[in-house]
Each structure stands twice: as C-alpha cells, then as structure tokens.
Amino acid sequence: MIEQWIKWEPIKELSSTYYVDLVIDSKKEFKIILSEEKNPQKKIHIIFENSVYAYRNTYESFRQNTIHILKKQYGESFYINWTFFKITNSSYLSWLAEESYGITNELNFTHFSIIAANEIIDIIAGYEPRIELV
User: Cβ(96)–Cβ(104) under 8 Å?
Assistant: First the structure.
C-alpha cells in the first residue's frame, strides 16, 4: 500500500515552516522544540508525555527519496508550506511490525512526521501530543 500523508493541524495559528531547535528523549517525556522560520523567537513545544515507542530524526538532505515521493504525489507546496503530518499505511510502522514479529500490529499507533526546514522527525506514539506555544 502507498503511504498517505495527511496534513495535521494540532492547534490553530501555526506557521508554515519551522526549524528543529531541540529533541529531548527521556523516561519522563519526548519533547521537540521548534522555532518559526520567519520569527525564531516564537517557539512551539511538542510534548509526548511518557515518551514514545519509536522515532527517527534525520537531516533533511538524507531524506531526498521521501521528498521526491511527496513532490510527485502531492506537489511541492504540500510539504514546503506545512510542517506537521500524520501518515497512514506507514512504511515506518510496517518496518516496526516486521522487526517486532507483528507486536505493533496489535497496538493502535499513529505515525507523526515533522518536516522542518532542517530535519525530518518521524514519531510513533499511541496518543496525541500536548502542544504549547512559547
């Protein structure tokens, strides 16, 4: 099946493009701090309390195949003018299912993806994160 990327708007009044400032992975939480591209003083905190099941953080230049697929399937403005996505039919979730001998198939996970100006972060969680504007 082909991955389906869906624009995710966790809160209203978000900017279109952000930079990743910090990723914190602790037993207490998984937190991503982003700054607006046009106004770096404005930040958003994405907080997954109780951590997450899996994530990958990749420099944007090393995800060219993903960018190419998104451009072909949705057009360039789809990912250039937005940062937050949910993915269904996720190849990342399929890989986790294979690696876990199917354990993840029995759980209700969501694949979140953040396409920032400098990095792409994929997160697998069983719940929605808390969002804070700072």
Answer: yes
pTM, to two decimals: 0.94
Residue extents of the structural domains in the chain:
4-133
Closest Cα to residue 93, out of 79, 108, 82, 78? Answer: 108
Residue entry with tokens 């979730």: 93
- Which residues lie below 8 Å from residue 91, measured CB to CB, with a gap of 6+? 3
The Cα–Cα gap between 61 and 118 comes to 8
pLDDT of 123 > 90? The answer is: yes
Indicate whether 1 pLDDT > 80.
no
User: Could you tell me if 48 and 129 are in contact, meaning their C-beta atoms sit under 8 angstroms apart?
Assistant: yes
Count of residues for the chain?
134
114 closest CA partner among 42, 49, 23, 41: 23
Q: What is the mean pLDDT of the chain?
A: 95
Between CA 27 and CA 87 the distance in angstroms is: 25
Q: No. of H helices and E strands in the chain?
A: 3, 9
